């Protein structure tokens, strides 16, 4: 019996890196849609229900897309990145949300091109989709950094939840300890989203879920001249 393979330390660190709020697509630049929701009247007591609503709509869709992009980048799917992008566009009726996702995705692709400039999937995505959505760019970046599909799916859930909480701390009178509690309370929901996303094998498997108020708020947000976050 040969020696047991040790885990790739870079792959383990990748999850921490990609959840860093300082990234071009991190929580310092986007609020996971919370800023326009607060401007529309959402209060402190609505933040946790909002977080759960995103997990069951937007995050389910985006996590499935990120997992599929990861499979393509890892050579485990016969789909293409443009096919995933078309599926995401069809499931994102709000032009504002599509545009924000592509701006954030461009920042994520820039990160991938900096840390893994010669990775075949990074080069392929840049050639095929110069302005990818955030989930697709995240899936490719995770694969290039050696992350597995399951850690990626959990990262998608955690990153969205912590983006909501981080924005709430800036926009509302929220006790940081309460915000931490919200993320812990949502653990079971995140696990459910993760397990469902791992079943994604084709663009048709990406769920089509509606979040009309979030879409409406996102459109309103583009008309505002004074705001803290891109989205």
UniProtKB/TrEMBL annotation:
InterPro entries: UreF, UreF_sf. One of its GO terms (molecular function) is nickel cation binding. The keyword Chaperone applies. Pfam families: UreF. The keyword Chaperone applies. This is Urease accessory protein UreF. Keywords: Chaperone, Nickel insertion.
């Amino acid at each position: 019996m040969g020696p047991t393979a040790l885990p790739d330390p870079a792959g383990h660190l990748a999850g921490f890196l990609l959840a860093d709020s300082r990234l071009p697509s991190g929580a310092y630049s986007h609020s996971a849609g919370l800023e326009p929701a607060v401007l529309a009247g959402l209060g402190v007591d609505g933040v946790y229900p909002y977080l759960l609503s995103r997990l069951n709509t937007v995050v389910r869709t985006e996590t499935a897309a990120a997992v599929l992009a990861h499979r393509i980048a890892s050579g485990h799917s016969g789909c293409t990145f443009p096919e995933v992008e078309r599926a995401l566009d069809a499931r994102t009726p709000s032009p504002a949300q599509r545009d924000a996702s592509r701006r954030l995705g461009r920042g994520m692709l820039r990160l991938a091109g900096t840390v893994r400039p010669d990775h075949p999937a990074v080069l392929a995505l840049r050639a095929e989709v110069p302005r990818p959505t955030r989930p697709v760019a995240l899936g490719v970046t995770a694969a290039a950094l050696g992350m597995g599909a399951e850690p990626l799916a959990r990262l998608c859930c955690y990153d969205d939840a912590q983006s909501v909480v981080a924005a709430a701390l800036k926009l509302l009178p929220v006790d940081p300890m309460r915000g931490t509690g919200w993320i812990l309370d949502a653990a079971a929901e995140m696990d459910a989203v993760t397990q469902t996303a791992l079943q994604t094998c084709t663009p048709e498997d990406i769920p089509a879920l509606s979040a009309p108020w979030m879409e409406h708020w996102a459109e309103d947000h583009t008309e505002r001249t004074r705001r803290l976050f891109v989205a």
